[in-house]
Amino acid sequence: MTKEIWVQFKDMESYRENEVKLCTLLRETPGECTAFVYIKDIKNVRELHTYSFDEKQIELLNDTFGEENVRYQEREIKKEIKWNRPTEVPKIKQLLPCMHDMYAVMRDDDGYSYKCKVLMYALCNDGEIYPLYFDHELGISPLDEAVYDVCGYELEGGEVYSPEGGKPDEQQ
Domain limits of the chain? Predict the structure, then answer.
């Protein structure tokens, strides 16, 4: 939940006239609210990043700028989830052998990580190559587990690859 205090000005000129007064009030009453300025005639919003405000002191702003020009609100922050893996399991076009010691790093429900030996690669219809590993319960991993459940890949020498791709030195 984010807390916001909004102060509205009718135009840019009235904002410039009152900017020092507003910044002084905000500086004297710091708090948890993010401060925003709305300029009505040009429909411009400006977040005052260096200032915060204590919502208990809202009467100071009401008295200075008018109750109709000051608004306090709480709202939920919407986070956009970016999913960079496929949303459906791709189809295997060709199986390729794995010629080196590579391990899929898995994480179970309790947060423990374990490694499974990569046996082969699946070249799929989405143009990606997914390592298929040996699972002690299932044998060779189903493709959906190789796509969604692996949190990284490790070569025997210790190099770590992420399922999101890229060179090891570019990954975190």
Answer: 2-75, 92-170
